[in-house]
Amino acid sequence: MSNVRKPCPQCARSERDRTFSVKTDERGTVGHCFRCEYVEVDNECRERIPYPAARTVGKSVPLDWSTKADAIWRRTQELAGTLGERYLHTRGCIVPPRDSHLRYLTQTDKHPPSLCACVSDVLTGRPISLHFTRLAIDGRGKAGTDCDKQLLAGHRKKGGCIRLWPDECVTHGLALAEGIESALAAAHAFTPTWAAIDAGNLAAFPVLAGVESLTIFADHDERGIEAARECARRWSLNLDREVRVRVPKTRGEDAADIAKRKAAA
């Protein structure tokens, strides 16, 4: 019997990745990935069983990145000179730096032009998913579909964020908002800013080593304010951390709504 470890054919992140276990005995060869549950069976003939079909019980486990996510991300381009940049200007947002995790994805047969953001694990920085904002053909608004904002199906969102400014820009302080536009609108007042994606991720946003000050730009609704308060409570338990929560005066608004109104004035 032999047992070797090598990169997974489905989710490997590099040649040094060793999540795929290949066991061989008198019955044949079985390969199994401990990350994405991809399975290969080789017994006289090879059968590939892509995850989640390989799992027969329980709920499917969301992927942390994948070859599909990587292929889409490789097709993205910098925001400068694109419809994505025009959209952000129309919304009154600050355009993030070149090494931001927010980029532009050109139109395809299936999807309109889009902002494409890499969702990464808050603590490790490793990519886990993609977030799309579908845009109108002229870039002056969203596409107007039923799913103008969506995450890549089957991938983990929990515990993730969108690093609109890279880690090296986060020295002493950080600003945080739910959505991309809210975070980039808040950037008029404070940088660097990250987007938590939604209220659930904002509420669970962990205390980060080396970050002495956190400014939370909350959505003015019940869920948004409670998420901001929950995050602030956690950070406030560390007596050496400064936490501020900013909420728009008008109920139902967020920082992006304010920036959009100012841009249209």
Biggest β-sheet: strands ordered side by side in the sheet: 1-2-3-4-5
Helix content: 10-25%
Strand content: 25-35%
- Total number of strands: 14
Would you mind describing this structure in some detail?
The protein has a 5-stranded antiparallel beta sheet with strand order 1-2-3-4-5, with no helix packed on it. Strands 6, 7, 8, 9 and 10 form a 5-stranded antiparallel beta sheet that branches. The protein has a 4-stranded parallel beta sheet with strand order 12-11-13-14. It is α+β, with helices and mostly antiparallel strands and 265 residues long. Helix 3 packs across helix 6. It is built from 6 helices and 14 strands. The protein is globular. The protein has 2 domains: 48 residues; 198 residues, no CATH class. A hairpin with a 5-residue loop joins strand 3 and strand 4. About 6% of the residues have low confidence.
What are the salient characteristics of this protein?
alpha+beta; five-stranded antiparallel sheet; 265 residues
How would the blueprint of this fold be written?
Layout: E1 2-6, E2 20-25, E3 28-33, E4 39-43, E5 45-49, H1 67-74, H2 83-90, E6 102-105, E7 114-121, E8 127-134, E9 149-151, E10 160-161, E11 173-177, H3 180-186, E12 193-195, H4 199-203, E13 213-217, H5 222-236, E14 242-246, H6 255-264
Helix pairs in contact: 3-6
